Amino acid sequence: MQSPLLLIGFLLIFAPSVIYAQDTLETEAEVRAFILSRDQEIKDAVQGMGNDPALQDKAQSLINGQIDFEEMGRRSLGRYYEDLPTEDQNEFIDVFGQIVRSQSMRDLSVYEAPVTIESVTVNENHALVKTSVEIDRTTLEVDYRLHQKLDRWWVYDIIIDDVGTVDGYSASFQSFVRKRGFEAFMQSLQKRVDAIQNQ
């Protein structure tokens, strides 16, 4: 017969790790469901755009509605973002968000393609979802970096074949600010927004 003290010791050592593993599995399932639900809603809207142009606004809203532009912008601008006053931070996020939203509708084939979730890794309130997408008989690796904020999961980076959205922006953004300053940088971004709106 096992000693009660040994049993208590076993529970104290192993029970927390078992509970943590169970919580992690539940969170991974939650993140997986989030990605699959988002993907299906976007597909339904994009595929229906041919018959109902009004669905373009819905598709754009679905594609961008669960992206954390503040986190994406903060990571893209790096240390320069942290040095800005709140007013300038808000201005940058607003303009940056407009640019990302407009670019998200340029190539809709990635939203129509079949998606397979390869893995979901959760680390506290962050998650990495690795997927593969089939487009014209070519397989693309599309990874999503997410974090949990206000009891919701938000995408803050999308990595396609090892090329990340945040890395792509940060290289040009930080170089521009370093060389010419934040004011000139914002003027350049605003010109991009104006050009997009006039297309």
Quick take:
This protein is α+β, with helices and mostly antiparallel strands.
Descriptors:
5 strands, 21% strand, 199 residues, single chain
List the helices and strands and how they pair.
Blueprint: H1 4-48, H2 55-64, H3 69-77, H4 79-82, H5 86-103, H6 109-112, E1 115-123, E2 126-135, E3 138-149, E4 152-160, E5 163-164, H7 165-180, H8 182-197
Antiparallel strand pairs: 1-2, 2-3, 3-4, 4-5
Helix pairs in contact: 1-2, 3-5, 3-7, 5-8, 7-8
Describe the structure.
61% of the residues lie in helices and 21% in strands. It is built from 8 helices and 5 strands, in the order ααααααβββββαα. Helix 3 (69-77) packs across helix 7. It has a 5-stranded antiparallel β-sheet with strand order 1-2-3-4-5. A hairpin with a 2-residue loop joins strand 2 and strand 3 (138-149). It has 199 residues and is of the alpha+beta class. It starts with a helix and ends with a helix. The chain is globular.
> Outline, from the CA principal axes?
globular
Strand content: 15-25%
SSE order: HHHHHHEEEEEHH
Average pLDDT number: 84
Whole-angstrom Rg: 21 Å
- First-to-last CA distance: 80 Å
Number of separate helices: 8
Give the helix level as a range of percent.
55-70%
Enumerate the strands of the largest sheet in spatial order, edge to edge or round the barrel. Answer: 1-2-3-4-5
β-strand number: 5
Low-pLDDT runs: 14-22
What's the story with the biggest beta sheet?
Answer: 5 strands, antiparallel
Structural category is: alpha+beta
